[in-house]
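Reviewers of the previous submission asked for a worked example of the structure-prediction workflow described in the proposal, so we include one complete record here. The input consisted solely of the amino acid sequence. No template or homolog information was supplied to the procedure at any stage.
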Amino acid sequence: MKTPEIRREYPVADIREIIIDWNGFSYLVIYGRHINGWFIAIPNWEVCVEASEPTDVLYNTEKLAKFLNNANAGRELAEAIKEHWESNN
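From that input alone, the workflow returned the following structure tokens.
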């Protein structure tokens, strides 16, 4: 078996880590920008998705809702991310 080889390293930027409490659940959300765009990770829910910029609630809702299996949670988290981004930039 071959040893993995790291071919290249890319910078990440605008990384934010927040905790969002919603509907009796807690979501540890890490979002930021990488070489191909944006991402949102929710490690305590085992979710990580390609995303749009933090202000694109519609697209981010669709991505999060699919993997959280809950449209309302996806929307609320996408809205909270947008609000956090706007209040900290």
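Residues 18 and 84 are 9 Å apart (CA to CA). We consider this example representative of the routine output the project will generate in years two and three.
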